[in-house]
Design goal:
The structure is a single chain. This protein has 6 helices and 7 strands. The chain is of the alpha+beta class. It has a domain of 116 residues: Gcn5-related N-acetyltransferase (GNAT) (Aminopeptidase, 3-Layer(aba) Sandwich). The longest helix has 15 residues.
Length: 172
């Protein structure tokens, strides 16, 4: 399997992922990073799963499940705003809290970036990360992403406005 390491593997969504996605998408602690403000129903998520196998060139996005080598689902990694003409896309990742700080995010990101560069033949990937999300900033910077700008007062939070960093990785 191309998207596999000694620690984890990435796989396509399956119908059996409904409950996992339901729990993940309705976890309010990650809503700020996913730009979510309302809960998802199982019906809506089932419709999403039914269409998830559509071609990336048609739907312009891709979501893969991050699994341990013991087949436990621990998170998701996303490609969004896929633009094949310009060879770029956004990247996002969510790891369940109990599996953070265990190298799963960096391992999944490494596999995913390899896929983006060598299979999708992307020229670059990018992400937007809140200034206060220090673990994500560290993750993406260690993966070779460079800060290319700051968007001031970009995110509205309960405690006020927050700046975000724009990061970009150009494949050579």
């Amino acid at each position: 399997m191309f998207l596999k390491s000694d620690l984890l593997y990435l796989r396509a969504l399956e119908k059996s992922d409904l409950e996992f996605l339901y729990q993940l998408e309705n976890n309010t602690t990650i809503w700020q990073v996913s730009n979510t403000v309302t809960p998802f129903s199982k019906e809506v998520l089932q419709l999403y799963l039914d269409q998830a196998s559509a071609d990336i060139y048609t739907v312009k996005q891709l979501r893969l499940i991050i699994c341990t080598t013991g087949h436990q689902r621990i998170g998701v990694i996303d490609l969004y705003d896929f633009d094949p003409f310009h060879g770029r896309a956004g990247v996002g990742i969510v790891i369940q809290e109990k599996f953070r700080q265990m190298q799963f995010a960096s391992g999944a990101l490494t596999l995913f970036l390899n896929y983006c560069q060598h299979i999708l033949l992307l020229h670059q990937v990018y992400c937007t990360i809140a200034d206060t999300n220090l673990p994500s900033l560290k993750l993406f910077r260690q993966a070779g992403f460079a800060s290319v700008g700051t968007r001031k007062q970009w995110l509205k939070t309960a405690s006020g406005w927050e700046d975000v960093q724009e990061l970009q990785k150009i494949f050579s």
